[in-house]
Batch of 2 targets.
Target 1
Amino acid sequence: MADAYVPRAEHRFTFGLWTVGNVGRDPFGEPVRAPLSPVAAVHLLADVGAWGVNFHDNDLVPIDASPAERERIVREFRAALAATGLVVPMATTNLFSDPAFKDGAFTANDPRVRAYALQKTMHAIDLGVECGATTYVFWGGREGSESDATKNPAEAIKRFREAINFLCAYVRDQGYALRFALEPKPNEPRGDIFLATVGAALGFIATLDHPGMVGLNPEVAHETMAGLNVLHAVAQAWEAGKLFHIDLNDQVPGRYDQDLRFGSVNIKQAFLLVKFLEDVGYAGSRHFDAHAFRTEDAAGVREFARGCMRTYLILKERAAQFNADADIQALLAEIHADDGAMAPFQGAYTAARAAALKAHPFDRAALGARGLAYERLDQLTIDLLLGVR
Ligand code: GCO
Ligand code: MN
Ligand code: MN
């Protein structure tokens, strides 16, 4: 049984260089761990059983590297990939660390910063594609404001649109097989970030020149920080054909951005999310965008990475158990029962259908009086998660 929790390539588990490489710096404290070179991170991830590794341009190549240094770093990194069999499914741009981006990148008020952000992203896209990436993430951490006296939010959206349109055209021009995934977040590091939620990003995508190329990278912590239900966000993205990527981690609502190990806070929510991804057949990366507690050393970082994957696999097994549980399925069949009586009123609008529906007598009191057994279903779910079924 324990073997079922061993990660394999088919599980599509990925981590960012910045996740296992997190040195534990926070606003109050200095690093507690030594930096991990990209090559060392690749070996660590291969050791713990991950399938892939993702990176920001500057996780791999320092922002001030010379062309010769870039070439050497990429060569060594690709050699490590080849030696371990790890792949690079996703890449992204660091448009937040350098002081140049203190007022944002694509939405900065300074047109030079906006142009530099585009230039940096084109180079980063080239780098990602060179390493095999097929998904390119846009997390606009600095795309926001502390005071709305400083920036017109409608103008900011226009600037963001112009940048994404430009970069879509660049990708097409190069003939790259690359899709973009927008990663919404409500706040942190900016006071408020534009396109704060999955819903906001979905609305934005519909206004782009090439909407088919652009989808979502929802993150558990980000929707949770906004007090929203991440499963609802993921489901809406999926239903729209826009779930291009997912960032799995955990978060206590109402706190700073915690990036906790996947499934370590809200187990029921994590279970229902895994069940959703597995039930619908989501085929993309399961990317863990989290990091080890600041208390951990190198061994703790491995525990953290193993824990993310192990919890996912346990929850995946529980999802299969849920789907095979006779009591749960009988209850679900009852809940979703349909005797066909309403069939004449279902489907697209017709004048005749509307007239018939308007004339139909409903027993409103009976509809309201019926108990739905959701308490029992939820407790069966809890029993299952607690291992007593
Ligand atoms: C965060 C974000 C980032 C992004 C990463 C990839 O809260 O800091 O989740 O980790 O996912 O920059 O774009
Ligand atoms: Mn995050
Ligand atoms: Mn993220």
Note: Residues 298-324 form the longest helix (27 residues).
Target 2
Amino acid sequence: MTTSPDNSPEGDFAGLALRGELTATLRELGYEAPTPIQAEAIPHMLAGRDLLGQAATGTGKTAAFALPLLNRLPEGQRGRTPTALVLVPTRELCMQVSSALHRYGRAFDVRTLPIYGGQPIGRQISELKRGVDVVVATPGRALDHLRRGTLNLDDVATVVLDEADEMLDMGFAEDLEEILGEAPAQRQTVLFSATMPKRIQAIAGAHLNDPVRIEIAREVTTEGEEPRIRQAAYIVSRAHKVAALGRILDIESPTAALVFCRTRDEVDQLTETLNGRGYRAEGLHGGMDQPQRDRVMGRLRSGNAELLVATDVAARGLDVEHLSHVVNFDVPSAPESYVHRIGRVGRGGREGVAITIAEPREQRLLKTIERALKQKIQVAKIPTSTELRAKRLELTRAALYEVCLDDDLDAYRVVFDSLTDDFDVVQVGLAAIKLAHKNSMPEAEGEDIPQPEVSSRRDRPQGRTTKDRADRKPRRERGAPGGADGRAAGRPGPRRGSKGVERVFVSAGRDAGVRPQDLVGAIANETGLSGRDIGSIQVSDRFAIVEVPSGAAREVITALNRTRLKGNRVKARRDKF
Ligand code: AMP
């Protein structure tokens, strides 16, 4: 990878030879520079090479394959059959990738269609008839369309397998083989996977032609003096990120903090929100001219602002002496940029703090960073309302302590004396503290922020399903009472017998070749559930029992009744026992 001396990817999108409409769109979206995977993958994909990329969610891999796909769209009138096919493991990712393609390709009015199970097939068929440029599909549904003759791959020039390891773990290997067999032999094939087990290498060997290999999870070394940096991560859903950041800042009370965002828009929005919540925040991004930047830096250096919200590019070369904290409002897209960001604190032997706010789906990227750094990033709990209140009282106490040392307090004696005519001294003191506290501290937010489950398995991403440990053992070692294949132990999802869980009976089992991962695959593919939502699965010879959150039982039953498991129609119903 080409890197500038400060270890960040060099140049901007203009250097990547993408069509002008695409670079303009990226500028409008506030993307300032390609992420490492984009800088590496895009030129090869544009040159038509096959590619095998190891990259997790959060690295910017979607744009890494989406931009070249869009770049290759024929100019002028486009035909009805798709020129690109993207295969993804889950419905959620299907919609995500499709909307990313739509966003990046808006200058071309790209026709992209997500096809996944659980959505009426008729609607998908009529969209396909009307004409589509890029199809994004889960394997099961793609195969369904191929068999019906409603999806034609004759003009497909590029096939992308996204999160290929997940697709294999969900039992889609045979489906993938069949789909790839239907695509023209003279195509470009691109495979992205967060891990590279042997099975992925085998697929790559069979279906990719002399691929370029790209690995983003490479090792990073920190040069010079080992910085003294306390590193912590908080796992929180997107909806609660700003509230969580507020609490963390309140507890940490930074002297000055640099908060990193990915795009200019995020910088602007977060700066505004933080100011609205009573923090003194300034934004800094590549869209600002030098005098604006100087003003912002001046306010930070003089202590008039305590938070600087910035993109990586804008923060390059920036040196703030008294910075105590670096906050990654998103997990940085590569270990290199993490190292570069947190290197802003802990200089000259001073202690610094690096905080990362990660969405549940970004936990794998966090693990990649840990591995590359060979350091553990402690996952911390978001401060509760009680902790926050205690901290705020502590700050008020400290502030009052300072004031008690002042020698001009006599000016207030007249107020004190008149109040003590009516109230006792302690009560007057407490009222003064209450007033000081209310005036200096924002109101504590009442509700605690929900804390999503933290992925404990080092290599498993949150929100996607894979085989659990029990499944990886040879079959005879598994086995629950009654000869069933259990997979309750050690896996996330609703616990057996726990509140809000329902058991769904499925009329096919081991005799029909059904394995737990086939059920997980079918359910995740056909419903809005992710693998983590699914509880224990017991597969016996003739049937299987799956535990699902009770609110979702009906959706699961409808979906299973509609789909095929290992080629067989099955009956699903609520388990009565
Ligand atoms: P992905 O790894 O594809 O899921 O992307 C993670 C996030 O990074 C998405 O929200 C993208 O919108 C964002 N993103 C991708 N590329 C860039 C870039 N070059 N600059 C800023 N943000 C980006």
Note: The pocket of adenosine monophosphate is lined by residues 31, 34-35, 38, 57-63, 262-263 (CB under 6 Å).
